[in-house]
Amino acid sequence: MSSVDSKLYQYAVQEAQAAVELDENGHYRQALNKYQRAAEILIQFVQYNKNPIMVRKCHEQIEQYLDRANVLKVHLSGPKVRRGRPSSRPSEPKEGEPKAEEGEYSAEEQEIIDSISGTILTESPDVKWTDIAGLEGSKQALREAIVLPIMKPNLFTGARKPWSGILLFGPPGCGKTLLARAAATECQATFFSVSSADLLSKWLGESEKLISSLFKVARIKAPSLIFMDEIDSVATKRGEGHEGGGERRVKTQLLSEIQGIKSGSKKPLLVLGATNRPWDIDTAMLSRFEKKVYVPLPDLTARVGIFKIHTAGINMALTEEDFIELGVRAEGYSGRDISNVCREVIMIPIRELDMGGLLENTDQEVIVRDINLQDFTKTLKKVKPMTTDSALDHYEQWATEFGEY
Question: Which domain holds residue 354?
Answer without folding.
Answer: 300-385
